[in-house]
Each structure stands twice: as structure tokens, then as C-alpha cells.
Amino acid sequence: MDVGHCYLDGNADVVEFCPHDSFHHVLAASTYTLQEGDQPSRSGSISLFNVDLDRVDLFYRLKTVGIFDMKWNPVGTNATHPLLAQADADGFVNIHHLKNSNGTLKCDVLEVHKQKVSSSMCLCLDWNPRATLISTGLSNGSVSLISVDETKTSVLQEWKAHDFEVWATTFDPDQPHIVYTGSDDCKFKGWDLRTSPSKIAFQNSKAHKMGVCCIAKSPHDVNILYTGSYDECLWIWDVRSISRPVNETSVNLGGGVWRIKNHDVVPGLILAVCMHNGFAIVKVNGSEVKVVEKYNKHESLAYGADWYRGSVRQLDNKEKTIVATCSFYDKLVRVWVPENDVI
Question: How far apart are CA 82 and CA 101, in angstroms?
């Protein structure tokens, strides 16, 4: 069931539902648009929407430079309001502060930190579980670690992690001194942050036949990790034995697996962004992966997706979930409810 849609003011590349209580209805969407010419520029924006089963209402838009990635800070941290971090084409990580406005559902975004990271582009980012650190992957193959507190941000360290662009960086919430990275060099690595510069904990350069696009730790099993790649495959890993994936036979989802999002309630339920092959909801059971639903109503490159946090009750008294997806060149955000009983 389609709930609604909206065209953005640029190429849509990220959608993120807010995970914090009282803000679950807030959906953030970002854009990245390259203006070519003698002096090329990269522009972008952040748009905020109120979302429920009846509507998708835009209530805020902020013009920015081109954004490659953005994420809300984790639930359970010391921050008094939700924080939204962006990684952008000018080499900055900016953190925005979301708050209620006069007790209504309208919200204001206030930029609270603006941290120059590199002369290279910031391509991806992730918060550590306590929201005191942000890791960001750079277009020159490096990874930067940024300290975050209420009054300031600062770059703690930066190290050369890969030979090419770093498209994925993810903290391990169960071992927060570990950061996983993936790159166009087809390598999947883990780094120990307890030293400076960080030391490599492991690397796998054999499983992925093309660039590693995304990495996601299971929120339900401390040992399970997922990776996606331009090779169109979803890989399952056990962090206790990283020499080879759990699934010896790769799960081909088609089109390049650009993003994967775990459902926060249902174990093994994953939303996959398959670039040239739309979006897929898959169920993982051990080493087996089954596609339970596909969504192909976008007419452009599939680029961003996220689950609404929690579930909503339909008129037929069944628990459902809401999904947001976006596609790049047609500048489109869609919000929909899966047809199948996935939760």
C-alpha cells in the first residue's frame, strides 16, 4: 500500500526515520546534485517530513552542500534531543539538532556542530553506541574518527584504510572499539580503535568480487554481520570467524546492494536497496536468505531506504510496518506499507 510520495529539489540519496521516542514520525531525506561545468559544484538539501499511514507532509527544508550520507544518533545516549549527522561533498561532518517547537509536531533543525574533516569528500558515516564518536569514510580511501560532545567536535585521528573510496563505515555496537569498513577496492576490514592510529583487526579481500557498499551488524545477534556489494550479493558473516562468510553460496539480489537496513524488532528481516533492481525485503534464517517482497515503483536508481521504528496497527487489526525509499535521478521519495505480513 502506497502512503504517499514527494519529489525533492535534487537527486535523492538518503532517507532516515528518526529512532527517538516522540519523533518516530519524522523522516529525513537528503539530496546530492552535481552541477557540471568549468567550475563544478555539488549542492544538496535536508528535507523533513511528518509521516503516518495517511500522509507524507514536508515541514522543513535546509539548503546544504551535496550530502552523501546522514544518520540519527542512537537511542539511549545522553543527548537531550535527536541529533542528525551529515557527511558532505565539501569534506565536512555537520550535526543538526532536532527539537519540538511549541509543543507541536512541527520541528526545527538547528546546526550545532560543523566539523571540517578533510579536503576529500566525506562519503559515509556512523555513530558509536554512546554518540560520543563518529567515523566517516573519505573519497581518498581514509577513515576519520571524530569526537562529539555538547560543546565541540574534533578530529581524533585519521588513517589510510583502503586503496579507493570508502563507501561503508560501521561501529560494532557490541564491541564499540571496532569499526568495520568497506571500499571500492573490494576489501572488507575491521579496525581496533584502542590505538592511534587504529590497527587493522582483520581484512577479507576474497569474498566480494566488486566494491563493498554497505555493512550492517544484526541488532538481534551479537555475532552476525551483513555486507552488500556492487557484485549484487548479500553476504552473511560471523564476526568470530571472519575468514569466510556464513553463506558459502552468495545471495544475488540484483542491481548492486547499495544499502541494507535491519528491522529493529523482527530478527533477520532486512530491507535492501538494490540500485538497478529496486528494493527487496529479505528474511535471513541461518545461512538461508529468502526474498519475501520486492518494490519496483521507482523509475530510477534505487539509493536509500529505511524502516519506520516499531509497528503500526492497520484497520484489519494486523501489525504492519512503514517503509521509506528514495531514487536518485527522478528525485523521488516514496512511503509505503509492505503487502505481505513481514512482521
Answer: 13
Query: What pLDDT score does 111 carry?
Result: 84
Indicate yes or no: pTM above 0.85.
yes
Q: 2-336: which CATH topology? A: Methylamine Dehydrogenase; Chain H (2.130.10)
C-beta neighbour count of 52 within 10 angstroms: 15
CA distance 11 to 303: 10
Checking if the pLDDT of 132 tops 90, the result is yes
Q: Give the count of beta carbons closer than 10 Å to the beta carbon of residue 78.
A: 10
Coil vs helix vs strand at 277: helix
pLDDT for 107: 65
- The three-class DSSP label of residue 266 is coil
Cα 118 to Cα 115: distance, rounded to the nearest angstrom: 9
pLDDT digits (tens, 9 = 90+) for 98-128: 987 665 655 677 788 899 999 999 999 999 9
C-alpha span between 205 and 187 (Å, rounded): 5
Judge whether 293 and 1 are in contact, CB under 8 Å.
no
* Gap between the Cα atoms of 236 and 229, Å rounded: 12
Indicate the SS3 state at residue 275.
Answer: helix
Is the preceding omega at residue 338 within 30 degrees of 0, hence cis? no
Residue 42 near residue 91 (C-beta atoms within 8 A): no
Q: In angstroms, rounded to a whole number, what is the distance separating the alpha carbons of residues 82 and 77?
A: 9
Residues 6+ apart with CB under 8 A from 240: 223
Residue 315 has pLDDT above 70, yes or no: no
Mean pLDDT of 258-264: 97
* Domain boundaries defined on the chain: 2-336
